[in-house]
Amino acid sequence: MFADSLRPPKQDLFCGVTMDQKNHVYRRTEPALIRFSSAHPAHNPEAFFYNVLLQHVPFRHEAELLSIQNRMGTWREECRVRGIITSEAGGPG
Q: pTM score > 0.70 for this model?
């Protein structure tokens, strides 16, 4: 069923194929740290607030991250709508 290049490593448990049918997903046998890029809010604010949202909101599909209440459609506004940030400057609380 698998070509030799697609076989899962022996220490990992095969979990399935991603939705695009190109990449395989494996369950790790040991926990790993999740890494986020560190965008600077002054230089790239949308990327910064996107990362903040990813760290605070569980989701299955990226479309779930933007709520109906977010009329501007920006990641910063979504953080404000969800109460992750509250000040006008965009900082927490």
A: no
